[in-house]
Fold this sequence. Notes:
mainly alpha
Amino acid sequence: MVYLVSHVVYLVVVQYFLPLCVISVAYARIMYRVWFSKAPGSALDGRDKIMNKNKKNRTVEPSL
């Protein structure tokens, strides 16, 4: 009887809890990477300052 109970507990742990833990860790790593990374195409302050400065420095030449 003790063998049967220990076998059932072993199967539950190996077939349920172990995969659940592995999947949970994988999803946590994915969530961390998605939440704490910059989105593609997001604004870059240094680049935007240079672009605004260049826009202000342009002079409009009158056309004849």
